[in-house]
Amino acid sequence: MTQITAAMVKELRERTGQGMMDCKKALEVSGGDIEKAIDDMRSAGAIKAAKKAGNIAAEGSIAVKVADDNKSAVIVEVNSQTDFLALQDDFKNFVTATLDLAFADKNLDVAGLIAAQEPAREAVVAKCGENVNIRRLTRVEGDVVGAYLHGNRIGVVVALSGGDTELAKDIAMHVAASSPQFLDPTQVSDEAIAKEKEIFLALNEDKIKGKPDNIVENMIAGRIKKFLAEASLVEQAFIKNPEVTVGKLAQQAGAAIVSFVRFEVGEGIDRGEVDFAAEVAAQLAAAKK
Q1: Which residue ranges of the chain lie beneath pLDDT 70?
Q2: In this predicted model, what pLDDT tens digit does every residue of 2-60 receive, in sequence order?
Q3: Which CATH architecture has domain 6-54+272-288?
Q4: Domain 59-187+232-264: which topology?
């Protein structure tokens, strides 16, 4: 019989999302054949799907749909456990169906979307052997709405007052690349400014030591001004033409930026990084006792 190694268990876990000992048992049954072990796990269907309810899903896809009149759009994030699944047709079809449903029902929030798609989600989990979650949904409306997708990892929707869809798409592309935190400096919270001041003082303790208070305040003011320019969309230099800010770009086209939404796959999710090799070795050792 083929010896079941820690590396084999690790590979099967990464490909299926199953627990360490489940993977070891599946490999023992399959005689060390990883592909057969995967088929056996998938054959277990809903039993395995239920066991994966707590598995971290931090990969996946962002999807966007813009109305034909370019006055509204919907953006969704659907997560999987691996980026491999995000490229498979079963997952892609689920994402498309989820987006279409969210777009068609203008009153649907993310909780309603999750509930409506639960049977379809369970079917995908059972078939593909990974946890799948609908994470978030945002609907954007405006005089002009444009969107940009960077592969399936980053999606942006921008709403303008005035202008046209090409301008909105250009600004959306800029948002995807530059990741502004705020639309304009007036939206930056006092807490964010205070935090930036705290960071500046901590990093420049030696430089400001012994300097007069007014000099220190001027240094802080300069850093805050730079922070506002870096964090605010309208103050950022436009990626296609750094000679103008994004706000000026819109103004020159007779437009104003009303809002933007930027989704990036997995942002803010605690992935719970684990030393898989060490975990496999420890569990295999424990099983032999």
Answers
A1: 1, 14-19, 44-55, 270-289
A2: 788 888 887 777 666 666 777 888 888 888 888 788 777 777 652 344 344 446 788 99
A3: Orthogonal Bundle (1.10)
A4: Tetrahydropterin Synthase; Chain A (3.30.479)
The pLDDT mean for the chain works out to 86
**From CA 8, how far away is CA 69, in angstroms rounded?**
52
CATH 3.30.479.20 domain span(s) along the chain: 59-187+232-264
